[in-house]
Design a protein that fits this description.
The complex is a heterotrimer of chains A (259), B (358) and C (295). Chain A has 259 residues and is α/β, with parallel strands linked by helices. Chain A is built from 10 helices and 10 strands. With 358 residues, chain B is mostly helical. Chain B starts with 8 loop residues before the first helix and ends in a 23-residue tail after the last helix. Classes of the chains: A alpha/beta (259), B mainly alpha (358), C mainly alpha (295).
């Protein structure tokens, strides 16, 4: 695990706040994500971890604060424009396209790369066929990376849960991101699948050069893979540091176990 | 068993990948081309009507089957297409200009409905489309100056470079060629990025957004495309009925279109065509069977309505994937014989999941 | 406003409330099944048709007095609705809402077809104790039947509210509609309770149908009123009894005013325009709850 102290800042969250009615999901949260690192966000339920993810990927508008990604102010970007900037995410409750095949799901990950104008698609010009082939080749790289070959033509609806989580990860990878958000990637996975996931996340960071931020509860995965850990509780930052440092922080222990 | 051995990715894109598929469709094409000389004039006329409904069904399938937007008022687009086309012809526009313009006009209508419709979904969208359809029919009835109101509007004969396309064989080929064009265009569109985007929007909007799909724009585009295709069908329908009145475009017609796509099988173009064939030929079938039924049951209007409902209920309860679903199951059975397992397509039991908190 | 204009306005208001009471009654039936099983019953209007024809048969052919005929019709409609849920609609629990819409549309077609086959295409009518009688309140004319309709609508609403708050079965119905799993776990027989809600909805449809038919004639086209009831539900707010009442009365009033104050022909479509406008501007209606998806 490389130390990430001297890397450039990729994502800067500053004074972020989010409230629904009377509930303060996020209170003046500030942190940064450095390029090439694996950052884990942990915290008890209701801490606002997924809300941070949702605000950064523009599912919600924040009540205050800013999110800077690579020079862009993300809070002003439209929801469907986030992928084009190089930010991808997975979902806690798998949001795959159930009635489509694994291949189609992954190909949809490639949507932001153009596939021809509408009239070209209508006529199925040779240019369109070439672009489709190109996308198919790119998607095959993801399939190989995640060992999804046996499931390529299966409908998602017929897949076991563990495989679906991998497809969800693959689809996010297919968008060609620079920053990847994983929302509880290990939830529902058995220990063997979690170990494989740890290797994949490490490979994503090392081989593909993608920065990973994961919201996670599974401390074994976090310890194995994360360079830095942030602990949140009740919408605010509690502690940050390496996995061991954060786990031993008295504030964090109190948040999980009560004081 | 059948395996695809492809050496290039583009081989897997092809619409007809295997020799037997190519032969089967070639035979079908030959049959359809030869039919006007083999069948009675009545049947040829009936088939032209079936082709028109196939086009309308394809239009609705794009919206409901592929993009997941319910529309209970598609007869409105048939009406706009029919009246628009008839009016433009009466103003002297040539057939080949009026026809695409009618489709375009309908497409714009679809856009107009689509833009507010993106704010609602599911049940609410069904009601909006229903209400829209009632309003359109009402406006057509009131706007006598242009539409002839309830007295009706006569439709000029379709003429192409001096040849009349209105009668028997010519009209049959006119409708058939348009159906083939629409089908090919949609086949191309639906296996490309736009088609995939439709399905993405249907299955998970949240995921679609995160992948860079402009969900609202896709929904509106689906509405416009669906309306445009249905409008073309409407224009052809005008020539078929030769005289337009608002009563021809009722809610019942909208329901019949929905029946076609649901019974045919949501999410497949083959389903749209099969559903259209079944629903449009059903009245003829019923009238053939009537002489054999006891007098009490054979009473006019009610029997057709009842049978429509009965068939729809059977499909919803026992074969939700429609005729196309059955086709695929049958095909899988034949292709994987003798290794087909009875539970290959078993549906898992599900508990009620509230859609109010969706 | 001048005296005459005020008189017109008052007359319209009274008419609007009378018509709105019917819409409210029909909307009530729709709300009941929607809250319980999340199925919007497109066959509700056809239940009205079945009730109207049944009442005609009982009054004109069997010679029963009006109230007895009403009672028997209500029982028949309730039993029929119970059967429809228990035998047919129950089978599609767990499937997406679209399946429910399609199934109830199928049922609507079947009911309509059966009635057509059984009774033929002619419109019929039957006598009520108030046929041909009108009263006058401060110079405003109102048919006695319309007064009865308003009264009955109020009575039915009050009865339903009391039933849901006060009786065990009513509370069980509320529980089942809010959280099926939890209701199961507390011993509520959810399937049976849901079918009973359908029976209740069928009963309200019967009351509405039997009272409405003498005004609009006993005819297949009676089912159209369910479309107005949909507009009423949308305006009032989906999923609440109060919403159904408020929406129904509002649509009734809006229609009457549109008939006089807006251009010719508006009256026929104004309900649908309101439906579309409300769904675009304020989807949860006047009294309903807003909801969105959690990811």
């Amino acid at each position: 695990m490389t130390a990430s102290a001297n890397l450039a800042t990729l994502l800067q969250v500053h004074d972020l706040s989010l409230s629904f009615g009377g509930v303060h999901a996020i209170r003046q949260l500030s942190f940064e994500v450095r390029a090439g690192e694996v950052l884990a966000i942990i915290g008890p339920n209701g801490a606002g971890k997924t809300s941070v993810l949702n605000v950064v990927t523009r599912v919600f508008d924040p009540s205050g604060g800013s999110v800077q990604f690579d020079g862009n102010e993300l809070t002003r970007v439209e929801r469907h424009a986030v992928a084009a900037l190089g930010v991808a995410r997975t979902f806690q409750n798998i949001e795959l396209f159930e009635a489509a095949t694994v291949l189609d799901n992954l190909l949809l990950g490639r949507h932001r790369f153009g596939h021809g104008a509408w009239w070209q698609q209508l006529l199925r010009t040779p240019a369109v066929t070439r672009l489709e082939e190109h996308s198919r080749a790119a998607v095959e790289d993801v399939i190989e990376f995640l060992d999804l070959s046996p499931w390529r033509n299966n409908l998602v609806a017929s897949l076991p849960y563990g495989v679906r989580k991998v497809v969800e990860l693959g689809r996010a990878l297919a968008t060609g991101p620079r920053l990847l958000f994983l929302d509880e990637p290990a939830s529902g996975l058995n220990p063997e699948e979690t170990r494989r996931l740890a290797f994949w996340i490490d490979d994503i960071r090392t081989d593909l050069g993608i920065t990973v931020v994961m919201v996670e509860h599974d401390m074994s995965l976090v310890s194995a893979v994360a360079d830095r850990v942030i602990c949140m509780a009740q919408g605010a930052m509690l502690a940050s540091g390496t996995a061991r440092e954060v786990q031993n922080d008295p504030l964090v222990v109190a948040a999980y176990l009560g004081s | 068993m059948r395996f695809d051995y492809n050496t290039r990715y583009r081989d897997s894109f092809a619409l007809l990948r295997h020799a037997d598929q190519r032969i089967a469709y070639a035979l079908l094409a030959a049959l359809l081309l030869a039919l006007p000389w083999l069948a009675s004039n009545y049947l040829v006329g009936e088939l032209a009507y079936v082709f028109i409904l196939c086009i309308a069904s394809l239009g609705l399938m794009v919206l409901t089957g592929y993009t997941g937007q319910v529309s209970l008022g598609h007869a409105a687009f048939l009406a706009v297409g029919a009246y628009g086309h008839a009016w433009m012809l009466s103003q002297g526009l040539p057939l080949m200009v009026s026809l695409p313009l009618a489709g375009l006009l309908c497409g714009l209508f679809g856009l107009a409905l689509g833009i507010p419709a993106i704010r609602v979904s599911g049940l609410y969208l069904a009601m909006v489309t229903l209400a829209f359809s009632v309003i359109v029919t009402h406006v057509i009835g009131q706007w006598s100056a242009v539409t002839g109101g309830f007295t009706g509007l006569a439709v000029p004969d379709p003429v192409l470079v001096g040849l009349s396309l209105g009668g028997g064989k010519a009209f049959y080929f006119f409708c058939l060629s348009l159906l083939a064009l629409v089908l090919l265009a949609l086949l191309n569109l639906l296996r490309s990025a736009i088609g995939r985007a439709f399905v993405g929007v249907r299955d998970s909007e949240a995921a679609a957004y995160s992948l860079g799909i402009p969900v609202a724009r896709v929904k509106v585009a689906a509405f416009a495309l669906s309306a445009g295709v249905t409008g073309l069908a409407g224009a052809l329908l005008a020539h078929h009925t030769k005289y337009l009145t608002p009563d021809a475009f009722t809610l019942i017609l909208s329901m019949e279109l929905v029946l076609m796509v649901v019974i045919g099988g949501l999410g497949s173009l083959r389903g749209a065509i099969l559903g259209a064939i079944l629903i449009s030929l059903l009245p003829t079938l019923i009238s053939r069977v009537k002489p054999f039924l006891p007098d009490q049951i054979a009473k006019q209007f009610g029997l057709e309505t009842f049978i429509f409902g009965f068939i729809l209920a059977l499909f919803v309860l026992f074969e939700p994937t429609g005729i196309n679903g059955r086709w695929i199951k049958l095909r899988t059975l034949v292709q994987s014989f003798p290794l087909y397992r009875k539970d290959t397509f078993k549906r898992t039991k599900r508990y009620m999941k509230s859609e109010r908190y969706k | 406003m001048t005296g005459a204009a005020l008189q017109v306005f008052a007359q319209l208001t009274v008419n609007g409330i009378a018509v709105g009471a019917i819409y409210a009654l029909v909307a009530l039936g729709l709300v009941l099944t929607y809250k319980a099983t999340e199925v919007l019953n497109f066959a509700h209007g056809d239940m009205l048709v079945v009730s109207a024809f049944t009442a005609w048969g009982l009054i004109t052919v069997a010679g029963l007095p009006f109230w007895a005929a009403l009672g028997v019709t209500v029982l028949i409609a309730a039993a029929l609705s119970y059967g429809i849920d228990a035998l047919i609609v129950r089978r599609i629990t767990g499937q997406p809402q679209f399946a429910g819409v399609m199934l109830t549309i199928a049922l609507a077609f079947m009911l309509r077809g059966l009635v057509s086959m059984g009774f033929g295409p002619e419109s019929r009518n039957y006598a009520t104790p108030w046929t041909g009688q009108t009263s006058s309140l401060a110079g405003i004319a109102i048919a006695d039947l319309q007064l009865v309709i308003v009264g009955v609508a109020l009575a039915v609403t009050a009865a339903l509210l009391l039933f849901f708050r006060g009786t065990r079965l009513g509370v069980a119905m509320q529980a089942a509609s809010q959280n099926q799993l939890a209701a199961y776990l507390t011993g509520v027989r959810v399937k049976r309770v849901n079918s009973m809600v359908w029976a209740l909805a069928g009963a309200t449809a019967a009351v509405a149908g039997v009272l409405l038919a003498p005004i609009t004639l006993v005819d297949i086209t009676l089912w159209f009123v369910v479309l107005k009831a949909l507009a009423a539900l949308v305006l009032g707010g989906f999923g609440s009894i109060a919403g159904a009442i408020v929406g129904g009365l509002s649509i009734g009033l809006i229609e009457q005013y549109a008939g006089v104050y807006l251009p010719d022909g508006s009256k026929d479509v104004v309900a649908y325009v309101v439906l579309i406008a409300v769904l675009i501007v304020r989807p949860h209606g006047l009294l309903g709850e807003a909801h969105g998806k959690r990811v």
